[in-house]
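In the laboratory, one determines a bound structure by crystallizing the protein with its ligand and collecting diffraction data. In a computational setting the workflow is compressed into a single prediction: the sequence and the ligand go in, and a structural description comes out. We illustrate the idea with thymidine-5'-diphosphate.
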Amino acid sequence: MSASPGRFITFEGIDGAGKSSHIDALAAWLRQRGHTVVCTREPGGTGLAERLRELVLHEPMDALTEALLVFAARRDHLLQCIAPALARGETVLCDRYTDASFAYQGGGRGLEPAILQGLEQWVQQGRSPDLTLWFALDPALAAERRAAARAPDRFERLDAAFFERVHAAYAARAVADPKRFVRIDSAQGRDVVGQLVLDAVLARLQA
Ligand code: TYD
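The predicted complex, in structure-token form:
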């Protein structure tokens, strides 16, 4: 499956697609089955990366600066948190990873894919997720859900066209890598989505 003994599962989707509560539920389910689970997020997951997250989410900047900061955060996160946990044989559940950079900085902001591919190679050095759960939701529906939530950050304030592009970029990545991606239909009720998540993990990783 991968070079490391642990499993690396990432969660992706546009803001409002509702992935966060399912990460916690999956972690609880895996722990009940005896797995040691690390729940983390991007940008973030280490002291340095959380400071970079604050900048990315709240300071105005151009698309390339944004990409450089999320990949800098990712480098620290991978070295300090993700890779050591996987080497110990633990399961890492990460709320967003490099697919988010391709979707938001690439699809959303229009940054060239070649720049992101270069950063990906430098920063990740081949450490891709074993499984990526893409919470797919119609951007209009996601916007309704966002409107009912807390105060928006820099991304959540962006317009419908931005989220259409982000959604399309996720869809393209899922199609390009069907072995790694599982599409979760987030328009379903919470219980159904939770079951889809468990089914995907069981099917793909024999948890
Ligand atoms: P999110 O994961 O949705 O956290 P919360 O649930 O607290 O809102 O927010 C992180 C934001 O960062 C999200 O809008 C997408 C953005 N982001 C990027 O633009 N590029 C990236 O590479 C990553 C990891 C996130």
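Residues 63-87 form the longest helix (25 residues). Keep in mind that any predicted model is a hypothesis to be tested, not a measurement.
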